[in-house]
Amino acid sequence: MTDADRFELYAFWRTSATYRVRVAMHLKGMAVKEHLVNIDSGEHRSPEFLNINPLGAIPALVDKGHAPITQSMAILEFLEELQPSPALLPSGLHARARVRSLAGMLVSDTHPLVTPRVKKYLTTTGGFDDAAWRAWQLQWFGTGMQAVEQRLVTEPETGTYCHGEVLSMADICLASVVAVMRVFKIPNNNTPTIDRIMHTLDALPAFKLADPMRQVGAPT
Fold first, then answer.
1. Cβ-based burial of 187 (10 A; exposed 0-12, middle 13-18, buried ≥19)
2. From CA 215, how far away is CA 193, in angstroms rounded?
3. What is the pLDDT of residues 179-210, one digit of tens each?
4. For residue 4, is pLDDT > 90?
5. Residues 97-141: pLDDT tens digits?
6. Can you spell out the DSSP letters for 200-211?
7. How many CB atoms lie within 10 A of CB 154?
8. CB-CB contact of 89 with 96 (8 Å)
């Protein structure tokens, strides 16, 4: 059975979380059959998809014969354990904790504040107009990225990548947030260390292939 026969990924072109999974699978040379779940038209709230993920969140990875795996970081950890090479976590207890910590700042503290369901609530029940939503995005993307930049520039473990000289989950998570900022034209100001790391990541095939604008469903 090939990877594409084994794995199915329920995805949407621009989501940061789906981007993470795409990058990881490309890095590990794994193929997957994708199913487009159009968040803009509400397909993630359909009974069919809620049967896969009751939260209605993207992505979900199905390994044939097993229950769906939701949450992008759980999927990354699953892929790491399934196929350890190339490793996305460094060796060493403290090194792995640092990578997971940096990743958590991006995927747990920053990204959840700017997801479509947050926007929907704020622009309906919360009474936000377009300008208020834009200000909200600038505030929370900026806060998260400045905090990550501060750690990267002050901690000696930072190297060519977020942690040393080997790419890790922290880099995938960093690039996933930057990718969505680019889609929404959110400036990333005063982050020279992030900019330097992103310049390296942007040149790697796995990150190029995961670019939201290259996915099925992306605007032409």
1. exposed
2. 28
3. 999 999 999 999 999 999 999 999 999 999 99
4. no
5. 999 999 999 999 999 999 999 999 999 999 999 999 999 999 999
6. HHHTSHHHHHT-
7. 9
8. yes
Q: Which residues are paired to 36 by β-bridges?
A: 11
Give the Cβ contact number of residue 189 at 10 Å.
Answer: 10
Structure confidence at residue 89 as a pLDDT band (50, 70, 90): very high
Q: Which residue's structure tokens are 């940096």?
A: 102
Domain assignment of residue 219, yes or no: no
> Domain end: 67, 86, 105, which one?
86
Q: How far apart are CA 19 and CA 74, in angstroms?
A: 14
What is the Cα–Cα distance from 137 to 100, expressed in whole angstroms? 24
Give the list of residues 6+ apart from residue 97 with CB closer than 8 angstroms, or none: none
- Look at residue 216 and tell me if it is in a domain: no
How far apart are alpha carbons 40 and 52 in whole angstroms? 18
Q: Give the DSSP letter of residue 59.
A: -
The β-bridge relationship of strands 69-70 and 33-36 is: unpaired
CATH of residue 44: 3.40.30.10
Cα-to-chain-centroid distance, residue 45: 21
Contact 20, 76 (CB under 8 A): yes
